[in-house]
User: What shape does this take?
Amino acid sequence: MKAAANKSKILIVGDDKQIRWSFGAALLDAGYEVEVARQIGEASEIISRVKPHILLLDLDLAKDSAIDLMHTLRDDSADTRALLLHTGGPSSVATECVKMGAVRAFQKPLAPKKILPVIHDLLADSEIRKMAKKAEPIVIGNRETDRFILGADSKMRDIFNIVERVAASPRSTILIDGESGVGKELIAKAIHHSTKTKKGPFIEINCGSLPGNLLESELFGHEKGSFTDAKSRKKGLIEIADGGTLFLDEIGEMPIGLQAVLLRVIETKRFKRVGGTEDVEVDLRFVAATNQNLKEAVAEKRFRKDLYYRLNVVPIHVPPLRERIQDIPILATYFIDMFNRELSRQIRGLSPTARARLQEYDWPGNVRELRNVIERAILLESDDLILLEHLPLEISAGLREDHLPVEKEEEEFTPIPLSEAERRQILKTIEWARGNKTKAARTLGISRQTLREKLRQYEAK
Assistant: This one.
């Protein structure tokens, strides 16, 4: 079949010419490039040469042949997404093909228009996955289970460049600011793991989670007998983080009196335990984070000006998710894959309407909220696709997938040869007549003999 304007390539494989013609015509009309193959050998050659985006495989082939083709797909074109057509009833071949990576199996007979939305969805998902690969995420740690920071947005790419640069300076202090849930802790960990000369621990504390006296004891430790419950000497987190990184989350919540003590430690790398008289020397990096405007806090005398400038040697601003719209489907796809593994599910992705709604939503909870939304949908819903109605009410606004208004787009005119128009009309009419050629010929106003001759010509092309 001739190539259409769309660059997405579809390969139809099967020995039922009615399947090849009807699905081929529908896909051509939808703007895809279409290749057809009757034999497995022919299909394997096309896969190696064309690398199709979608394989539509009719399982009315020999059992071993269909499975062999899936092997070929896995070896020669791993990015191709396979869809299966099979006759009704349980199919061990279909089950085996799905195990080998086929996305979905459809029972015949099936109208081509039923599969077009699925193909559109798979292609959109493939594009998102390509974007995710190009995003070159920062890996936090060296294990497969370690977490990623993803982002294709230019603002996130700038942050990744800063992380690489500051990793070469193990003593520079860093101040990360951004709304709650944007991933400040992940960036702090990325800095720590990217610092080649630092093999020590990554220690973190939320400065707003403890009252001042307990926070001081946690940070600096204490000597035996320094207060009522101090029954033995205790190392503080600053001492424990020696040789590594101390991450001070919500630094704006630290009491003003304790800020002066912290400033001295950052400048001298020396401190005394609570109740102690001897200096303890340490060598570590301080990374602080806040969701407050520390400049305003300095103006209001809630935060020390000297500490602010001492921490703000390398400032990193993490943008909210609503300012990174193109990253939303990339992150959602990453979380879908992650929870599929954790929860033993096989969710294919997002429906187009669900994806569009995620990109329209304001995300006050940022990446953390998106992660929770995806986890909830995968955990509670039974469909193999996340639909609009699977999203929380504040995101879906009460709409359902099948109740959305559809805007009718003005059809774009593309001139084609008269012979091609005739061919498409004949194939669509046969599809409409469910393969009844007598009925199709009568509807077209031609004889059955003429119809047979036309079909023979098309088959020869």
Q: What stands out?
A: The chain is about 45% helix and 15% strand. Residues 418-460 form a domain with the Arc Repressor Mutant, subunit A fold (CATH 1.10.10.60). Confidence is low (pLDDT under 50) at residues 1-5, 141-146, 402-412.
